[in-house]
Amino acid sequence: MGEKNTGLLTAQEASRLLNINEKKVYALVQEGKLPGTKVTGKWIFPRAELEEYLRLKAQHTLRRSFFESVINKKVILVCGSDDPVLSMAQGFFHQDHPDYTLFSSSVGSGEGLSLLSEGFCHVAVCHLYDPGADDFNFPVLGHYFEHTDNLTLVNLFYRRVCFVAKDHEVTSFADLVGRDLRFINRQKGSGIRALVDHLIDTENVSASDIKGFEDEAFTHLDVINHISSGRADAGIVTESAARSANLHFCRILEERFDMVVRKEIFFDKNIQAFVEFIRSDRFRGLLQDMKGYDCRDTGKIMYAKTKE
Fold it and tell me: Of 38, 39, 50, 41, which is closest to residue 13 (Cα–Cα)?
């Protein structure tokens, strides 16, 4: 009845496979947690089902380890706007703070704030401009949070964004429409999309007149790929992304790019490690090495503009 002949194991063989003592094997099978059956008064166990039990147990342990690491604040979950600096910063952050791991998801500024409000991330990153208040991020927080006083905003950097094109220099949406060029837009809820909506309203251009307006990309790199491949003629990206792709660009404005975090966790060790990294010479050096960024307020706590 050995494992080599029938695929069935004795209690002793099962205990060796599972690396537990025989008493534990008997206890688990009687609790219904292990597959087994009695034959002529002795317990036997199917090897294949025990191996599946081990595999599921290992998966459960791995999942539990991951979520415990999040709970124990070894992981920082960042959601929101796309920017190449954030992707580059992840490795440097882990190198400077090996006890912590930074994960970021480019879902757009609005979705990042929504996920933060629902408790699905630690930090939201955004650059949402409100022309009425002439301010970034603060004016829109009330759309996502009932109590905005419970939030802290820290500046990451300022960045220049621009129209970008392969064979043409585009200076405005009126210019784009007049030359019948195809545009690649960003997804609804993103900071760039909010800027697009503001610009066409300011220029009194109808979205229906813009060829390709309904086509969406989710990152600056995706916009660049659309233009480089000929699927689109123009888009809006950071100046740094445009320069790296050797495309024609025309500056639109400088944006303020902030991180948003709940005050209740701002002084947690993992968040403070991230803030310390943002204020470091390493992060500032990364910004200074890239065109189109400014670190004049990097690491500073930001406050809403006061009405005069």
Answer: 50
